[in-house]
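User: Can you help me understand a structure? I only have the sequence.
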Amino acid sequence: MRKIIVTGGAGFIGSAVVRHILSNTDDRVCVVDKLTYAGNLESLAEVSDSPNYRFEKVDICDGPELDRVFRSFQPDAVMHLAAESHVDRSIDGPGEFIRTNVVGTYTLLEAARRYFRTLDEAGRRAFRFHHISTDEVYGDLKGPGDYFRETTAYAPSSPYSASKAASDHLVRAWLRTFGLPTLVTNCSNNYGPYHFPEKLIPLIILNALDGKPLPIYGRGEQIRDWLFVEDHARALYQVVTEGTPGETYNIGGNNEKTNLEVVKTLCGLLDELRPRPDGKSYAEQITFVTDRPGHDMRYAIDASKIRRELGWKPQETFESGIRKTVEWYLAHRDDWCKHILDGSYKLERLGLGR
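Assistant: Let's start by predicting it. Here is the structure, written out as C-alpha cells:
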C-alpha cells in the first residue's frame, strides 16, 4: 500500500487518476486541489466515500500549507497534475499560467524536497515525484512521418506550453541538483468522461445537443494524437510505481485525427444515438472560425519507450473510446454537465479546507 499525493486531483486527468487508484489498488490518495474553475469534486463522487480518500483544498503556490499536508499525510509519492491547461486562456492571460505552472511547480518541488530530507534511507529509496506534462512542449511537427520522442528538443508555441516546458526543466533540475527522485511524462491530447466543456470534444457534443454552432479553428486541418483518459490514468500509475527516476516517458494513443475528422465523428455518433428532431445531421452546425495565434498543426507521440520498458499500451481505440465518451455525456447531460454549465458545481467548494 502506497500513500500518494495527487495535485489537481479534482481536474479532468487528475480525477481519472484518483478514480483508477482507489478503484483498483489498496493505495491511499490525498487530493490537493485549489478548486479553480476546472476543479470539480463531482468528478470524484464515485470514490469520495473510500476510506483511502482524503481531500485538501490547497493552492500549490502555498508552501506552508503544502508542508502541513506532507507532514500529516507522509506520502510515498507525488503525482503532480495541477496546472492551468487551456491554450486560449493562456493567450488571453498568461500571468496565471506562469504563477501556477512555473511558480506552483517550484513551490511543490521545494515542499517535496523538505519532506524528502526527513525520510530515512528506505523512505528516500521508495519516494517518487512524478510530474505530468504535455506533448505541446515540443512545438510543431513538420513532416508526416515525424513523431515526438523523449529526446525531441523543446520548442513551445503558446504561453501555456512554454509554462509547462519551464516546469519540466525545473523538475529535472531538482533531480540533478538536489537528488530528488523525479519522473516526467508527456502526453498527447486526452479525451473522455468528466472533461471540462471548454475543450474541443465536450464543447462539440454539448453545443450540438443545444443546437449551437460547432466552431472549428481555421479549416480544421490541425492533427492531434488522441488518448482516452482512462488509458492515460493507467499509464501514469504504472510510471509512478514502476518507472525509473530521471527518465521521461511519452504517452500517446496512436490515434492521429484532424480536428475536422474528430468533429465529424462526433456528429455521426450523435446522429445515431440522439438524432436531431428535424432529421438533419449535426454536421450542418459546423462553423469555421478564425484560427488562434501560434496554432501548431500536428502533434504525434512515439510511445514505444513506455511500451517497451513498462509494458503499457492503450486499451481503447479512438472508435471505442469516442463512443464511450459520447455515451457518457448523453447519460450525464442533466447532472454533471448541467452543474458545470450553470455553475452550481462551484457551490461544493464552500466550507472545504482541512
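Now, to help you interpret it: Residues 3-349 form a domain with the Rossmann fold fold (CATH 3.40.50.720). DSSP finds twelve helices and twelve strands in the chain. Let me know which part you'd like to focus on.
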